[in-house]
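Ex. 9. Protein: 2-haloacrylate reductase.
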Amino acid sequence: MTDMMQAIRIAGPGGPETLAVTAVPKPDVKPGWVRIRVKAFGVNESEVTSRRGESSPDFTFPRILGIEGAGIIDAVAPGSAFTPGQKVVTMMGGMGRSFDGSYADYTVVPEGQVIPFESDLGWDVVGALPEMFQTAYGSLTTGLGLRSGQTLLIRGGSSAVGLSAATLARVIGATVISTTRNPDHEGLLREHGADHVLIDDGNLAGKVHDLAADGVDAALELVGLNVLPDTMGAVRRGGTACFTGALGGTWVLESFSPFEVIPSGVRLTTYAGEATDLPTDAFAHQLAGISTGRIKPVIAKVYHGLIQASQAHADLEGGHTPGKRVVVL
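Predicted structure tokens for 2-haloacrylate reductase:
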């Protein structure tokens, strides 16, 4: 008899109500992959997009969503570098898109996207971290090469990644200018590392130059391509802008003119990395920082059980509370 598990497996596009819990076969382990007993997972904008049927071609139905997860190694194939009982996190690499993800009791993922860790932090905290910290850390390091003493602009600062990036940038030793469209979020941004907060009315470059006359050394773009030209205008000659996200929904410029978008001498790059961009020691350093209070994870709300995943999606689409939404199993 096939072992069964609880999971959320969607057959086609729809609203949060399509995230119904059902019984499905427990996935088998195969060479180079491990099976994880899922303890918690974060809920992400990309999963909402996939649920709606608006994702990129690598996503297919039917699918168990979930691009990240935290849990315990349950089973491994012969020759694995992992052992059952290890605490791990996993993220990206096609998880929840081209193969089934973490909205389930168990998930099977390639070993290369698994990060082991040791920590006494609760699963409600650890479950919020993988994708959020990987994206923030990778954007600052791989994308921007941020260094101590530099000035960073984070456009989209009240997002989960934006708040995490501010916290990590301050640890690096950078001065942080963070933006939000909601004046009520200014205190939150400062609490998580912003030295300066700017209210985003669509025209920021001039305000940034009032704080940094020559422009910032680095800019992290999380809002979208529609504001990228303005963001680029806030960067000094020789500085770098990194396009990582599009909270505003604009991922493609229909008519792109490099001379209009990219100022002379300013560098433009992107970041869409994987788990390998977050080294095990870097993740351990972040966990230790959370334990001592030096790093503050941004958690909007914790939900309990797969049955609450639909509410987490509805709340994320509502967009009223900054931070990560976490489902604990």
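Check your answer against this statement. The first helix runs from residue 45 to 52.
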